[in-house]
Amino acid sequence: MNSAHRKNGPHGNRTPDRELVSLITGASRGIGRTLALTLAGRGGTVVVNYKKNADLAQKTVTEIEEAGGQGFAVRADVETTEGVTELFDEVARRCGRLDHFVSNAAASAFKNIVDVGPHHLDRSYAMNLRPFVLGAQQAVKLMDNGGRIVALSSYGSIRAYPTYAMLGGMKAAIESWVRYMAVEFAPYGINVNGVNGGLIDSDSLEFFYNVEGMPPMRGVLDRIPARRPGTVREMADTIVFLLGEGAGYITGQTLVVDGGLSIVAPPFFADAGEALELPPRPTRDA
Ligand SMILES: NC(=O)c1ccc[n+]([C@@H]2O[C@H](COP(=O)([O-])OP(=O)(O)OC[C@H]3O[C@@H](n4cnc5c(N)ncnc54)[C@H](OP(=O)(O)O)[C@@H]3O)[C@@H](O)[C@H]2O)c1
What we know:
The protein is of the alpha/beta class. It has a single domain (3-198, 232-259), classed as NAD(P)-binding Rossmann-like Domain (Rossmann fold), CATH 3.40.50. The protein has 9 helices and 7 strands; from the N terminus they run E-H-E-H-E-H-E-H-H-E-H-E-H-H-H-E. It has helices at 30-40, 54-66, 81-95, 118-128, 130-142, 165-185, 203-209, 217-221, 232-243; strands at 21-24, 45-50, 70-75, 100-103, 147-154, 190-197, 254-257. Strand 1, helix 1 and strand 2 form a beta-alpha-beta unit. Helix 1 runs parallel beside helix 2. The protein starts with 20 loop residues before the first strand and ends in a 29-residue tail after the last strand.
């Protein structure tokens, strides 16, 4: 083995009494918040980044402490380069090091391509791709004992649907950067992976399906083999898996958490009428 290569992951050379430090962007709400609370149950320190909702971020911190972990909130707008720097400066000042960086915060305008202006493109890049890349550069400097980086993607990265081109394009770029980072950071014992969510029950899902011109969500749910939206808990649990010891040999991958949405194609069972309705699950007695 190349002596420059460290054991994979934050647990490789870790002294057992060293508590893990995790940074999650956008942890005041949604998937980030649920992830923060899940990690808190395992002890260690969770850094809760947010932009607007100081009260919700503080609530997350309180619940982290109630769950047995330690935490603090950092207001930093990751859409700006200064915001990313301030965020990591604060982690460095208060924790001195880092084990997990989860690039989770996202925001976008949802528009048809003909209505997308240069400023929309610039903001989409600044908000959705740049913080992952600049954040990962900073994270590597703080991961003194190997580490894990996870970025959030969505099914708009691999499938086209109305008004999602800007965010979908940035998520596709994230999945590509995941592979490049995985190769470059492997010698430091840092694994880099993505989690690609389908239709996940959250505030942002509600917002998206209320965008003008969007079809009703019910029609989409009927086309998901699981016939339901995913939960923020299911997303958080997948991220926790990638941050954990069991994923030590997984790097450069994006796991899809979508109840089968991205693997189906027309003709859909939901459109086919009774002839193609699936029968009840067969059993040994039938
Ligand atoms: N929900 C879904 O259906 C779904 C599906 C697939 C993938 N995903 C991905 O999963 C991730 C989380 O999604 P979510 O639905 O849980 O998000 P969400 O509920 O909309 O929450 C977004 C979080 O990001 C923070 N945030 C927004 N702009 C920020 C900025 N400029 N700087 C720092 N923080 C900022 C928000 O904090 P404040 O409100 O305090 O500013 C909030 O904590 C995203 O990457 C999303 O694309 C979501």
